[in-house]
Amino acid sequence: MGPLPKRKISKGRRNRRRAHHALGTPRLVTCVQCGGKTLPHRVCPHCGNYMGRMQVLDMDEEEA
Question: Where is the composition biased (Basic residues) (predicted)?
Answer without folding.
Answer: 1-21
